[in-house]
Amino acid sequence: MQNSITPQAPPLKLLIVGGGTAGWLSALMLAWHFRQQPWVHIELVEAPDIATIGVGEGSTPALTRLFRQLEIAEADWMPACQATYKNGIQFSDWSTIPGYQHYFHPFPSSEDNAVLPEFFRQVRAAQQGQPNDAHPDSFFLQHQLAITGKAPFCADHQIQLQYGYHFDAGLLGQCLKKIAIQRGVAYRPFKVTDVQCFADGAIAQLHTAEGATLAADFYVDCTGFASKLMRQTLGSKFHRYQQMLPNNAALTIATQAESHPLSQTTATALRHGWCWQIPLQHRTGNGYVFSQDFISADIAETELRQHLGLSEQEGSSRLLKFESGRLQQHWQHNCVAVGLSQGFIEPLEATALYLVQQTVSHFLLHWQQSQYQCRGELVARSDYNLLINNYFDRVADYIVLHYKTNSRSDSDYWQHNRKLEFISPELRQLLQCWQSGGDLPALLAAKQLEKYYHAVSWYCLLAGTGYLPERGRLPEYSRQQLPAAQQRLQRWQQLAAWCPEQLAHLRQLAASNRLVTP
Ligand SMILES: Cc1cc2nc3c(=O)[nH]c(=O)nc-3n(C[C@H](O)[C@H](O)[C@H](O)COP(=O)(O)OP(=O)(O)OC[C@H]3O[C@@H](n4cnc5c(N)ncnc54)[C@H](O)[C@@H]3O)c2cc1C
């Protein structure tokens, strides 16, 4: 075995430790990348007695694109994972400003091209204090699909819609495992107990509780929060987001499935945090995300039960603790960390699997450059770590903005979040630009920040919560009377009528299912 990855000298062995969603997605991405190189052996080991985290039920459109690229058809996994469609996220009660208590954050569609110039113009005017219809809800088709529970397919109208998924995380893990094994990934139910390193610090071999010794050319740490290889063994430092994102716990309770589920995630602000509601085919996932620095788990449970209308006896709760932050180095020596082992930004906007994808795909790119394009591995590693840190930090900026712009005053929690001073220089500049009536899309483009969140997303959040000069806010009633808003709504309703109801569409998909359910 070499102590660094050397694709020129087959065979090559890549060892993934951890079989959660991050582990199996990594396995599938690696298997796909090396599909023409049969000398590359991919193996995954997973501790049989350490459960996966079992949450993480929402995605962004990046997962949809990845599954297409990996040739994993919706019929192959959606029915098996009780999955539903996600057209975006409904934010409720983050703002107390009349007419701005709710807004929808849509995923993009080809119809956006027709409305974006108007949306941008009106938001800019409102931002500068001229009364205007700057609320996003009437501008985007996806909102109409979400609230009518439609699947994102307007085939008759040639409209391209981007969408994400909701799924049962445990079932998705099993399904991905099955597909990965079919595609040649070797699987061993082994628990890594000890890691030995070479003198230069690279990983030499792993010992397992079952008595096996495993060695590879490269290791992928997908051991979840344990971060067995990267933090525990290689000592990669952790950069905490605690000062800007104080949430550190989530309490989950599942409720019955809806008979007509909306095709959206709902993120409702409660007194000391926010609650997700994710409609699946067989149940609705609910979770209250809060900070134990502000309330106890008992108080959180009482609040969540009240919100869901559940008595103390109904539904069992589960408490999960987490730390928001990321590694300073995601790739060290012959090891890369992927998933919770590399960090976690709290679940608002459901970005964790998106970051898994970015981590793996950029790793392959950088590693290949270092091997084939005479680029030193040290340089590639350092560039890569900087890039992935940027992904985490810029996504975190967008999450922080939800808290920073809240207008609630019902608890210390919300006031504390509004007054947060520990925000990044990038977010500070964005906020200054917005508050001074400046050109936010131009700033995002100049700073190359659009690849993390597009201007539409920033505008939806800032305008949707009414974070505008008071005179720029047009009352809800007046907005609804505007002929342009009525015309748009009419068009969205017509188009939504052309889209299939999602449960009916999913039943059809199940009927065409090619894979045996896990
Ligand atoms: C409250 C909450 C809500 C979330 N919501 C979302 C969401 O909506 N959308 C989203 O994209 N993400 C979400 N996430 C994140 C998401 O759950 C994870 O990113 C995803 O499940 C991947 O987890 P993982 O595979 O990194 O870790 P895990 O699921 O914890 O898997 C770890 C694996 O490592 C194995 N392991 C551990 N130690 C060893 C060892 N010593 N030897 C061998 N194997 C070992 C375990 O057996 C397990 O298989 C959420 C997370 C939390 C906490």
Automatic annotation (TrEMBL):
This is Tryptophan 7-halogenase. Keywords: FAD, Flavoprotein, Membrane, Nucleotide-binding, Transmembrane, Transmembrane helix. 7-chloro-L-tryptophan binds at residue 86. It comes from the Bacteria. L-tryptophan binds at residue 349. The chain crosses the membrane at residues 12-34. The active site is at residue 86. One of its GO terms (molecular function) is monooxygenase activity. Pfam families: Trp_halogenase. FAD binds at residues 19-22, 192, 340. Signal peptide: none annotated.
